[in-house]
Specification:
heterodimer, A: 134 residues, OB fold (Dihydrolipoamide Acetyltransferase, E2P), 2 domains, 5-stranded antiparallel beta sheet, 3-stranded antiparallel beta sheet, 3 helices, 11% helix, B: 385 residues, alpha/beta, Peroxisomal Thiolase, Chain A, domain 1, 9-stranded mixed beta sheet
């Protein structure tokens, strides 16, 4: 696998860089070339907060080949800013204690090893807020 | 635009077809469809196939199938729209006949999924989601529909038991379909005790990995009687719509906007509403998908389809029979062929040739086929002539 496939996603996976439409203000993650709301083409680069609210989740018990050593693991949809949601794993959590509506922090973590060369792919995963207090 | 009819149908037995290759499956179905119509030649060929590349290492499937069907040099192209590939192939054929470019067009679909192991198949199917922002994080298709199921269940107070009535119903239907992969009845308890694939979806909430092919022949309605002895079935409406590729980009996760828009357009073309439809084939890749698709297309109010299967409303003999073929769950889901097989079920029903699973007085049927988490939906409405 060519490293370019991995490193061109660094701004999003490492820094949560999003794009805010300069005309209507709609925010996109990942950034787009054209706004799907007002069709404007100029954007301001912004960074999303490293936290959000769990909208829905599942526990993957039959994983795809690239995640076969990780199952079972939780994946959820997390609202990061109002109207903007992302999908990622939820880790360091008791799988029985997940609940829609709970607050989560996002952390920089190893996601998977890509391709036959096993290029390490990093990105964001969610962890429960409570772990920070304990 | 010309009116278009379906005059021939054919499909292979679906299941784990170890002895048949990708091309064997397709050609068998295509020949059955041509024989059914009573025609010897076609003008053009569409092949719905999601991932010949990942499942079989084979691309360029259009000419491969034209070659082995013995119809070269007719134009032939593979159509890909994930699990909606078959439905979209049918729509391409419909448009080609309707606009007058061709008279006799074969629309088929095929998938040969058992040449790879389960985790590779899970990966291949996962490519229908956003590879960089969904699949990258380890979500699978059962996982994505599980995310939808949890939202729906929490919003409307539906239980796993309510949802399990969907596959129980579809297996009861599939029992009467000789081409179905699973011809056996299942119970609510079996669904609930089957292994968890992606909470809250159990194994028996999920459609299976299947090998199979299906094909139909389309022609102008005005020529149907002279070309074929078979009772023609008219295409009343055809529409296709898209939505965000990523599930997390939807405002309402449990609402399939692509199905809503495609069905609205198809109903407008057909000049009818949901109340005129006698039977529906919907894309029940997972139990929750049948529920959400029925609501999104206006057959049930939001929150009402979740208990419809349990109440018998959507069973054969009920007010609105849904997936009398057995659906994807029992009939099987060779992804590229599924949309075509839905059309075949409607044609058999509208010809009054569906045997044990015949819907009485079936005049109008609707098929909804979707790709990904309803990032694409294609809807067709057919009428008996």
């Amino acid at each position: 696998m060519f490293p370019a496939k991995i490193w061109r996603e660094f701004p999003q996976r490492y820094r949560l860089e999003a794009a805010k439409c300069k005309k209507c203000g709609k925010t996109f993650f990942p950034p787009r070339l054209v706004c799907n709301s007002c069709f404007h083409r100029e954007f301001e680069s912004i960074k999303l907060p490293w936290e959000g609210t769990l909208v829905t989740y599942t526990i993957i018990r039959t994983p795809p080949s690239s995640f076969s050593d990780q199952a079972p693991y939780a994946v959820g949809i997390i609202e990061v800013v109002p109207g903007l949601k992302i999908t990622c794993q939820i880790v360091d959590v008791d799988l029985d204690k997940l609940a829609s509506g709970q607050k989560l922090f996002l952390e920089f973590r190893l996601i998977q090893k890509d391709g036959k060369q096993g290029v390490l792919c990093y990105g964001y995963k969610a962890v429960p807020v409570a772990d920070y207090n304990s | 635009m010309r009116e278009v009819a379906v005059i021939g149908i054919g499909m292979t037995k679906w299941g784990e077809c170890w002895k048949s290759s990708l091309r064997d499956l397709f050609v068998e179905a295509a020949l059955k469809a041509m024989d059914d119509a009573g025609i010897a030649q076609i003008d053009s060929l569409y092949v719905g196939c999601m991932s010949g590349g990942l499942f079989n290492g084979q691309e360029h499937i259009g000419p491969l199938m034209a070659d082995y069907l013995g119809v070269c040099p007719v134009p032939a192209v593979r159509v890909e729209s994930a699990c909606a590939s078959g439905g979209v192939a049918f729509r391409q054929a419909y448009m080609e006949v309707a606009c007058g470019m061709s008279d006799i067009v074969l629309a088929g679909g095929v998938e040969k999924m058992t040449d790879v192991d389960g985790s590779e198949a899970t990966y291949a199917l996962g490519t229908a989601a956003d590879q960089e922002y969904e699949s990258f994080h380890g979500i699978t298709f059962p996982g994505l529909y599980a995310l939808i199921a949890r939202v729906y269940m929490q919003k409307y107070g539906i239980t796993s038991q309510d949802m399990a009535a969907v596959p129980v119903k579809n297996h009861a239907h599939g029992l009467k379909n000789p081409n179905a992969q699973f011809q056996r009845a299942i119970t609510i308890e079996e669904v609930l005790h089957s292994s968890m694939v992606a909470d809250p979806l159990h194994l028996l909430d999920c459609s299976p990995i299947t090998d199979g092919a299906a094909a139909v022949i389309l022609c102008p309605l005005e020529k149907a009687k002279s070309l074929s002895q078979k009772r023609p079935v008219k295409i009343l409406g055809s529409a296709h719509a898209t939505d965000s590729i990523a599930l997390h980009d939807r405002k309402q996760i449990e609402f399939f906007a692509s199905a809503a828009i495609a069905s609205k357009k198809a109903f407008a073309q057909a000049k009818i509403g949901p109340e005129s439809v006698n039977l529906v084939e919907v894309h029940d890749c997972f139990s929750i998908a049948e529920i959400c698709a029925l609501e999104s297309m206006g057959f049930f109010a939001p929150g009402q389809a979740g208990k419809a299967a349990g109440q018998g409303i959507t069973a054969l003999g009920g007010k609105l029979p849904v997936n009398v073929s057995g659906g994807l769950k029992s009939k099987g889901h060779p992804v590229g062929a599924t949309g075509i097989a839905q059309i075949i079920e409607l044609v058999e029903q509208l010809r009054n040739e569906a045997g044990q699973r015949q819907v009485q007085n079936a005049k109008i049927g609707l098929a909804q086929n979707m790709g990904g988490t309803a990032a694409s939906s294609v809807v067709h409405i057919l009428e008996a002539c």
